[in-house]
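Example (one chain per record):
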Amino acid sequence: MRLMFFYHVGEDVGSAQTIHNYSRVAKAMGHEVAVYGSQPAGSNLNYSMDVESADVIIFVLESWLEPHYAGYLNLVRLMSKAPRKRRIVIDNDGLYNNLIRVGGDFSHPDDQECRTRSELYESISDRIFQPSFRPLRPNVRTFIFHGYNPKLEMPLDFSAKEYGMFYVGNNWFRWRAMRRVLQAVEPIRDKVGRIGLAGWSWSAMPRWVPSPLREQACYTELEYLQQMGVEIMPAVPVDQVISTMSKGVFSPVLVRPLFNHLRMVNPRMFETPAANTIPLFDLDPEYVQEIFGDEALELVLPAHHPKEKILDALSQPDRYVPILKAVRRRLAEKHSYEVRVKELIEMVAN
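Predicted structure:
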């Protein structure tokens, strides 16, 4: 089967690595993966403009796709070449929903943008999927899309760590979650050791994000970070994420409030368990349980006295090794890219 992805973003960010994994696994299973477009220099992905030979076009849609962007024009051209029955939509950011406001986050800036986005997705396909076990709209189905790669697992060894806590990720509606973790650390700051934070918009708001979205999505309190002695570093390349997270005894798992509300899955949620670190989830327990299993509930930061969980992880990290191994086994069994490709092929065949 020939699978073609419509996706437009840099190859080291967003879902590009997810598509790389689909390409790798699908080839081993006798299928072909291509990305719609002209082949960029130095890319390991297979780009193609041959739409007619594709069995299905998978539109991986995120917040970057706006009607005034060039990507929208490519989308229209592609739709004119591929019949509707060969098109599916992966709503990767949960934007095919009504206007939702939660925890300072929102799905759309206003009702008009909400309607425009929904009409766009519906114009592409009747088959719309979200990487969530709990889609809100009745016509949306579940397809987790992202996967776990067991080959990236690092040995669990907490004997020589540079940092007590290390977080890798950008600040996009994540400041409230980060502050909750740091407030839990505050009373035990001297026991935590060094704290590292790698990603953009933690120390300054990016100018390329338009206002007022910039102030809403990228809000941060630099003075508080400095007061807590947090070492802020630039974003790291995708292929260094797991090794960088592994510098810390524990790494918080944070998502934007909208994703927590919608129970959305993103790539980082599958990368952190593969690192040589203890993932501590600042997420609703039910959200963690349905993805990572019952054992992972031991890794959830409790709403009350979260510092006790952090202290326990720092003082006896080896106690968490059996838990982490159980989580890894579940992810390899339920969420590997081999599982994902089989699910996708079955979806297309049906």
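Caption: The longest strand covers residues 56-61.
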